[in-house]
Amino acid sequence: MRHLTITLITLLMSMGAWAEEEYSSRNAYFGDLHVHTANSFDAYTFGTISSPMDAYRYAQGEAILHPSGYEIQLTQPLDFYAVTDHASFLGLMKEAADTSSEFSKYEISKPLHNLNKSVGSGFLSVLQRSGLFRPFAQAVNQGLEDGSIDRSLIEEVAMTVWQDTVKAADEAYKPGTFTTFAGYEYTSSVDLYDKYLHRNVIFRDTENLPNKVFSRIDSRDPEKLWDWMNELRSRGVESLAIPHNSNISGGAAFSLNDYNGGPIDEIYAKKRALNEPLVEVTQAKGTSETHPLLSMNDEWADFETRTGVTVTHSGINIEAEKDINNLRGGFVRNAYLRGLSFSDSGLTNPYKFGLIGSSDTHVAGGSYDEDTFFSKIGVLDGTPELRGSVPFNRFYGTIMRFYSPEGLQKIDGKNYLAVSNRLIHFSASGLAGVWAEENTRESIYDAFRRKETFATSGPRIKVRFFASQELEDSGLDDPNLIRNAYAKGIPMGGTLLIKDNNPSFLVWAISDPLGAPLQRIQIVKGWIEEGEHREKVYDVACSNGLSVDPITNRCPDNGARVDLKNCSTTGPGDKEIKVIWQDPDFLENQEAFYYSRVLENPVCRWSTWDSVREGVEPRSDIPATIQERAWSSPIWFKPTL
After folding, report:
1. At 338, which helix (H) or strand (E)?
2. Do 91 and 39 touch, CB atoms closer than 8 A?
3. What is the Cα–Cα distance from 430 to 247, expressed in whole angstroms?
4. Alpha-carbon span 291 to 301, nearest angstrom
């Protein structure tokens, strides 16, 4: 199917228009659209037994059990949540472990029998579980190919689990208070753990959903997924797909070519723009905004990138050299630049997407706070020793040195678990933010569609972003400021079409009451000049009344500090910062994108919190502090003749 069943313009028109008063009354809602439960093959292997209903209880503030045996609970409930278990092998690991099931009778299921009847968090349990899935997946795939495994049995399990997932979302949905979405994760990678090409499919509502979801068994080509979504849309079933972890996609996430290596054409570009209006820019496996090798003049580019490149005081240290082209195809900012290039050549921009964050938790509940980080994937990283933030236990260290010395690594003269070198780079991130009229599926999903969304690395920072040609005379203390911004301009996610005149940008950020104070607001600009990609980061507002240096475009140091002995913080900062700004380098005939980035004062990274609690020095090869942040979706500027 190579044609679109509906155009984006028709879709947006069908949503209707809101009155000016409703625009200005939009509220910020926070949620997570990337959550795995026991129905995901990897989560179950790692000891997770929590159900979708458990996940929704957690999001509403209830405590649930972590696979390692302790309770996890949010400090404040979320507004919306989506369980997105893997379509690949959906529910199958749990089925293999259940000795009363038909699938458990296969020989390949025997190592999984009663796997989670009792879940231990000890080192031996970790060793046992870490090697379970790959052989199982390979055997299942081989069995499907040679016919020794009944495909219909696997499909029956998946359909039953999918229906139960939808039912759980409906039972947990409380319009006006707590919103749930039916969803799942689609994987198109050749290898499940290499060159990630994953996206979460989120349905607007649960009416007339298919009994079977589209998975990599149907096709590994994302364009086929979009065809499936378009076909459903023609029958009134609306959905969108959200790519994630472009940072570890090997450049495939935002390629200059389609999945099969051909050039991106107009058909591909329109299908992608329609079906993927959002991208997950931050989550547990790192942040995908940009990279220090791509944005060398951005001092904040090296934020939880998880690509094997570290930044030292003397510069960039590349232990395993990365292909710069792969980096270009793996990060959001460069994708925006590539999108401008497509637009400049006359094609629809396939990379004109908004931003969200989510967690990718595999224990049914997200870990969003640095000071209470509890892991992502279950028993494999459920303790500080296992995730590499503190030295390995002396007893097990002695065993490891005897039986498997390569399992340990020396850092700062101490023994750390070698496998944790990957886990130590996991992040306490992130959250999706939206501006919507009310906490309902319809309202929040419509915000997704118009890209009035923002991402945070965990804190509940609220950020608004507008562009207009009529805001420069507005007063920041005007009670009608937001009403005027909607009436005279466009919010994040939109395109500003103007003939001349330098537009004004309004950024308004409010800190998380439970988080650190705000330090600065920045605006990131990207454009094409003489065929070359260009970008620039402007500090546009500083905390504590400090002024931006007009030469460097940077705020002065506000004096915020972190004591690494106890993670206490000192120094000033603001609860709220807002500014109206004009681009000093604006050119009226130059297409560009702008997005805002809001930075908190520095705080201890979760790994430092772990070491402080254990009374050991933080690892010297991992940043001790981070600056939590929020990113708005962009506003695109397009000149008109």
Report:
1. helix 332-344
2. yes
3. 15
4. 5
Burial of 209 (0-12, 13-18, 19+ CB in 10 A): middle
CB 595 within 8 A of CB 355: yes
Q: Which residues are CB-neighbours of 635 under 8 A, at least 6 positions away?
A: 465, 466, 467, 490, 491, 492, 493, 494, 495, 496, 505, 593, 594, 595
In DSSP terms, 543 is beta-bridged to none
DSSP states of 525-561: EEEEETTEEEEEEEEEEEGGG---BTTTTBPPP---E
Q: Chain-centre distance of CA 221, in angstroms? A: 21
Residue 638 has which token pair?
A: 């397009």
Cβ neighbours, 10 Å, residue 22:
13
38 near 94, Cβ under 8 Å?
yes
Q: Give the mean model confidence (pLDDT) for residues 612-628.
A: 95
Please tell me whether residue 319 adopts helix, strand or coil conformation. Answer: coil
Query: How many Å from the N-terminal Cα to the C-terminal Cα in the chain?
Result: 36
- Condensed to tens digits (0 to 9), the pLDDT of residues 10-55 reads 333 333 333 345 566 899 999 999 999 999 999 999 999 999 999 9
Q: Judge whether 483 and 20 are in contact, CB under 8 Å.
A: yes
Element (H, E) at 523: strand 518-529
CA-wise closest residue to 201 among 167, 168, 176, 165: 165
Residue type, 63: A
Give the tokens for residue 394: 């002396």
Neighbours of 486 (CB within 10 A): 19
Q: Write down the residue that tokens 């092998």 correspond to.
A: 89
| Cross-strand partners of 625 | 604
pLDDT in tens, 129-180: 777 888 888 899 899 889 999 999 999 999 999 999 999 999 999 999 999 9
Q: Which tokens hold the place of 443?
A: 């309202």
List the alpha helices (DSSP H) in 404-514: 420-423, 441-450, 481-488
Q: What is the full DSSP assignment across 139-202?
A: HHHHHHHHT-S-HHHHHHHHHHHHHHHHHHHHHH-BTTTBEEEEEEEEE--SBTTBS--EEEEE
Write out pLDDT tens, residues 422-453: 899 999 999 999 999 999 999 999 999 999 99
Q: Residue 545 corresponds to which amino acid? A: G
Does residue 271 sit in helix, strand or coil? Answer: helix
Note whether 178 and 76 are within 8 A (CB). Answer: no
The rounded distance, in Å, linking the Cα atoms of 462 and 30 is 9
* Residue 203 parent element (H or E): strand 198-203
Query: Which residue is associated with the tokens 């380098």?
Result: 585
Q: CA-CA distance, 382 to 69, in Å (whole number)?
A: 9
Displacement of CA 280 from its chain's centroid (Å):
3
The H or E element that residue 127 is part of is: helix 123-130
Question: What six digits make up the tokens of 508?
Answer: 């308004």
Backbone angles phi, psi at 547, to 5 degrees: -110, 145
Residues 530 and 532: their CA atoms lie apart, in Å, by: 6
Report CA 396 to chain centroid distance, whole Å.
Answer: 35
Confidence label for 191 from pLDDT (cuts 50, 70 and 90): low
Return the residue matching tokens 């696997």: 154
- What distance in Å separates the CA atoms of residue 51 and residue 37, rounded to the nearest whole number? 6
Using an 8 Å Cβ cutoff, are 384 and 610 in contact?
yes
Instruction: Check: CB of residue 533 under 8 Å from CB of residue 334.
Output: yes
* Bridge partners (DSSP) listed for residue 581: 505
**Residues across the chain:** 641
